[in-house]
Amino acid sequence: MTGVAMPMLLIKGSFKVSEKARPDGDTVPFIPDNVADWKLVPGCKPILPAVDGHANVRLEGIDALETHFEGNYGQEQHQPVDLAHQAADELLKWLGFTSVVRKADGTVTLTPAGVPGFILTRGADIHGRCVALVGRGTPPGCTGYEINVDDDLLKKTANYYLLSVGLVYPTFYTGFPVSLRNVLATAAKQARESTPPLGVWAKDVTQSGVKIAGMASLTADDGAVILPKLFRRLKEYLDLNPTDSSLACLPSYLGGGADRFHMPPTSKEIVGLQHAVEITNGSTVRMTHRPEEIIFVEK
């Protein structure tokens, strides 16, 4: 065992992708062998499974490019689809799916058989989604009980794998322990500093900056590849006035969003993503810190 282990609830079951679903790179449907195990997941909002017992599991510590984000305003949008779909396909392949058939928009048209696996969760988020580490095959303990998750076990999860091949961004929250965050951050750094950079890092402009000239700047096949959280904020901001791509009011909008975070080594809480975003020449936006250097406070 290495690092500081964290107790997480282990639930054994299977992953299944249904027809008409649109899987992405950081969410996957999971059905416990005992559906009642969903009641064991802590959180301020209970998990409400579908009729067949499945609920969507949000992978802890990672964020994939958006394949179908609607937000609070406007129409559904996506980030550059090639990399977005690569992440989704790689997650399903890693879990053991071999026959997923999808349309161009990502909708599943052929229902594959489910594959066995397990999740390790510390709880549900405010939306009632189970946030978890995702594993395949035989679980490392008994379902319905907590086990200690250390660095070695973390490295056997899909979360770690997707970061190691560069297809997702690290996105951390305060409830996830520092030692485990560091393992994921190292995987992301190695993918970013690989020669050539892997996955999203080959095209990422989150820190170098993107010139915004409407949503097409972020959604076209050759559009800018940026941290999904920044994409979501920009998308909702631009939706407020689709005919004006000016970023003049973006800092105020981000302030109103009130994302809370801190940037180690300081633990001082910062409110508003405008404190980690820089706008130059009126139309170019960038984040001032690497994704793994920003630790968001869970709501």
Give me the secondary-structure topology.
Layout lengths: L5 E10 L11 E6 L22 E5 L2 E2 L17 H15 L5 E2 L5 E3 L4 E10 L5 E7 L8 E5 L1 H4 L3 H7 L4 E2 L1 E2 L4 H15 L17 E2 L4 H4 L8 H12 L10 H8 L2 E3 L7 E2 L5 E4 L3 E4 L7 E2 L3
Helix pairs in contact: 3-4
Q: Name the CATH class of the largest domain.
A: Mainly Beta
Taken together, the total number of domains comes to: 2
How many E strands? Answer: 17
Beta-strand content estimate:
15-25%
Major sheet size, sense and barrel closure: 5 strands, mixed, barrel
Unreliable spans: none
Q: What is the CATH topology assignment of the largest domain?
A: OB fold (Dihydrolipoamide Acetyltransferase, E2P)
Any guess at the CATH architecture of the largest domain?
A: Beta Barrel
User: Cα-atom Rg, whole angstroms?
Assistant: 19 Å
Percentage of residues assigned to helices:
10-25%
Overall average pLDDT = 91
Structural class: alpha+beta
- Tally the helices: 7
- H/E topology pattern: EEEEHEEEEEHHEEHEHHHEEEEE
Shape: globular
What is the spatial order of strands in the main beta sheet? 1-2-3-8-7
Cα-to-Cα separation, first versus last residue: 31 Å
